Amino acid sequence: MGHFDEQEFRTTIGHFATGVVIATGCLEGEPSGFTAQSFSSLSLDPPLVALCPAKASTSWPKLRESGHFCINILGEDQQSVCDIFAQTGIDKFTEIGWQPGETGSPVLAGVLAYIDCELALEHDAGDHIIAIGRVKDLAVLDANRGPLMFFRGGYGRLGKF
Ligand SMILES: Cc1cc2nc3c(=O)[nH]c(=O)nc-3n(C[C@H](O)[C@H](O)[C@H](O)COP(=O)(O)O)c2cc1C
After folding, report:
1. What string of DSSP letters covers 117-137?
2. E-strand stretches of the chain
3. Structural domains in the chain (count)
4. Residue 161 pLDDT level (bands cut at 50, 70, 90)
5. Residue 82 C-alpha to ligand 1 middle, in angstroms?
6. For 109-149, what is each residue's pLDDT tens digit?
7. Residues of the domain holding 97
8. % of the chain residues with pLDDT over 90
9. Using an 8 Å Cβ cutoff, are 40 and 49 in contact?
10. Which atom of ligand 1 has the smallest separation from the CA of 150?
11. Is residue 99 part of a domain?
């Protein structure tokens, strides 16, 4: 650490507002996934996105082994989905419908959009991993609802939606 502690790091970084996604995958017929905010568009040509799984994530190794992951962008009414997928060691797929996307990774019911990827590259990054996905398929499923937002450690909606 520099001249700041972990709490100051979290608080300051928390002023960067993000949407919330669920990164999903399917290994040997078993779906898995986790809530994430560290998602970003990376490259248009070729089409790449980035996701940063924590090394402590128990779902990421399964997505990695499947060689694919799907980014599900949550709508403003999906905080309960966000909460379920932010837990660890439980079956997270009992309360929500899903269907396999092109790569086999789950596309969750009620999401605003999804981005289905092949895992292209992983970089080591402290207690996280930078995972780069090559986009295989994507679609907007609902252009009318606003996104679930995460800001200063809490959830909100965008006023103009
Ligand atoms: C709003 C929010 C954002 C999160 N962002 C990330 C993230 O970007 N990367 C990550 O690995 N975990 C993130 N988490 C934490 C995981 O969702 C959480 O550790 C989860 O239990 C991991 O589940 P797993 O053990 O099944 O992988 C976030 C949680 C919340 C509530």
Report:
1. EEEEEEEEETTEEEEEEEEEE
2. 18-19, 21-27, 30-36, 39-43, 48-51, 68-73, 98-100, 106-108, 113-125, 128-140, 149-151, 154-156
3. 1
4. low
5. 9
6. 999 999 999 999 999 999 999 999 999 999 999 999 999 99
7. 16-143
8. 96
9. yes
10. 1
11. yes
Which of 16, 27, 35, 130 has most ligand 1 atoms within 8 Å of its beta carbon, as the pocket-test mutant?
A: 35
Q: Tell me the C-alpha distance between 63 and 17, whole Å.
A: 26
Amino acid (one-letter) located at 36: A
Which ligand 1 atom lies nearest to the CA of residue 54? 11
Burial 73-101 (b: 16+ CB within 10 A, else e): bbbbebbebbebbeeeeeebbeebebeeb
The CATH code of the domain that includes 61 is 2.30.110.10
Is the pTM of the predicted complex or chain greater than 0.85?
yes
Tens digits of residue pLDDT in 90-99: 999 999 999 9
